[in-house]
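Practice problem: predict the structure.
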Amino acid sequence: MTTKVAKGTLWTLFGVILPIGFSVFTTPILTRLLGTESYGLLVLILLIPNYLNFADFGMNIASTKFASAAQAEGAAEKEARIVRTSALIALVSSLPFAAGIAIFSRPILQLFNVSGSLIDEGSLALKLAAVILVINFLNIILNTPELTRFRMDLNTSITAAGRILGLIAAPIVVLLGGGVLGAVAATLAASLLTLSGHIFCGIKLLPEMAGFSIDRESVRPLIKFGSSLLVAYVAGALIMHLEKFVLTRVTSVEALAYYSVAAAFAGMVGIFAGSMAQSLMPAFSQLQGEAMRPALSALYSRGIRAVMVCLLPIYVLMILGARLFFTYWFSPEFGQESTVPFYIIVTGFLFTMLTYFPYTIVIAAGRSDVLAKIYWLELIPYLLLVWWLADRYGAVGAAAAWSIRSLLDSILMFALAHRVGGVSYLQKNVPQFLAAAAIMLLPVGALAYFRELNLQVIALTLVAGGLYAMLITTRVLDTAEVAWLKGRIYAYLGRSE
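Answer:
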């Protein structure tokens, strides 16, 4: 199971990074072809449906959770019916939202001050975006047979290929005179191709998918589970972005700009853990029950240990390069104003990344209702904390509030995973790990002392990284984990031990 999760994580990570690489090249082309105003309209049209991610009623996660349990039981027909049932619930739930966007497309764009010359084209494009919303919900549900069988290679290939085709096709269509409407149409075509790929692979992996019946017994549990996820999502979305609105209210939009750039860069540290989370959901769901508890606990602890070991060097490198990145990629003003908030936010993200594991344990145990209650209980105290710190310290205060909440939320989630899921994280060789971590963090202390990234700090980073790797492999990881790691490396290199 560890190998499956590791492979799945790498495939998912690859599927996230590759489209980002393509967008780096296609975005400037689209900007030049469309012009600033039309490109802004395109971004707005594709962004509006993103705020309706809850409209699938939580069926993307519910489908994976319930279908994984059926797959573990060997009940292929039940698994297929659960996927179809989840897709039907998502369709019924999302169609009213999509219809609302389509019907009120013109007033929506007017609300966002879109100029009159672009309203007609933008209105038609937004109607197409409403269709994309529904298609994308079906995509993240009908890929369930791939996820439950840990075929992240298929899921990534289909999803990433669709995104890349959309990124390539949009500038071509615009160049041929398609405008904003053509770019959105190209995105819709890519989503439909992605859907076709998931349906084809789903039937190949699970032939029982080629049917129309639903699982009536699962309707109530799916809706109950999804409704709790929906409530949790709304509170979670408010919590994740609340400090940005408060910061703007108590300071200025300039402070928000500095903060947002820092937060976006800090969020990149979460790509690895976020990629692992997609593989963890089916794994944790298939390991439910007392008989599987030892295997679940082992995978839980090993995953957390892997993230801790991998994230620490990444964290150090991001700390070291932050000021240079903000200064030369944006401007000296951003280097001055965004760096300290970034240091604070990225530290909070370390706790957020570890929280993926207990969070997924709670979801896999079917207790999404607990998450909904916790997030809503957190909301008011967090609002007060953000308002107090942001009002006094600006972007630095907002960053501090966000990271404090991340730390407390992480502690709470680990306690919940123990109580609800019956698992506890056990760190082996704690003194050795703390010693390795202290060595890896030495360059951060050197940066604080010198106040700049110089040759001494770079040399210390190389030495510290080498010592850290040596201590981790010889003193922190156990023999089985080192053997597994060597086996994966040899397998990828095509060599035998």
